[in-house]
Specification:
Elements: H1 2-29
Protein name: FeoB-associated Cys-rich membrane protein
Keywords: Membrane, Transmembrane, Transmembrane helix
Length: about 40
């Protein structure tokens, strides 16, 4: 049971990091210099 909880936490952490870094960088590329999303 503890292994299932650990795997879920690791999967959530990896998903959060991928979402934070990869999708955020895509949004910055589509942004103009004066949009205030830096």
């Amino acid at each position: 049971m503890q292994q299932i909880i650990v795997y879920l936490l690791v999967a959530f952490a990896v998903f959060f990091l991928v979402k934070k870094y990869f999708f955020a960088s895509k949004n910055k590329k589509n942004c103009s210099t004066d949009c205030g999303c830096h």
